[in-house]
Specification:
The protein is of the alpha/beta class. The protein contains seven helices and nine strands, in the order αβαβββαβαβαβααββ. The longest helix is centred in the first third of the chain and has 14 residues.
Amino acid sequence: YHPGGGGINVARVVHRLGGSVQALWLGGGSTGVQLADMLDAEGVSHRCMATAQATRMGFSVHETQSGRDFRFVMPGPTADPAALRQVLQTLKSTALDSRYWVISGSLPPEAPQDFYADIARLARAQDKRLVLDASGPALMAAMRAGVFMVKPSLREMEEAVGRPLPTMPQRVAVAREWLEQSWCELVALSLGPEGALLV
């Protein structure tokens, strides 16, 4: 068992590299308690926004004959409006000494698609640098609100623009369009086996 999820993984790496970090996460049930215990054991500072539903689990399978790994990410519980409000309130009241905010991961089912955009507007109002790793409508809504850096995968960028981007010049052109729109200052495009592109 390992603690995980987009933002949790970012917090764990920042902590391992010696940075000061606090993870904010939605959690409930016995799996929420288990996740909190694992973060405590690693010494990662965190704050759980309690929800009525249990924290989801994912799992990995290693197939020994081929050596391939498979990740199974199960759908999480539906959004808890009270917990989402608590996230925004916590960011307003307790994150004043931070320089960077990181949003990483998918929204809970039935969460408002502009929830990350609300966080982006709050970050700008508090002069924070927001790093965004999201997808779909939530990605575009938050980018239009303005972020410091966006980190889409190639699939997520292609979905955002509605067309395939098979060549590097096409990918750079989209990233430059986003920069020219003042949606972000940096685009970090992950390309799987091809590596990554920073514009």
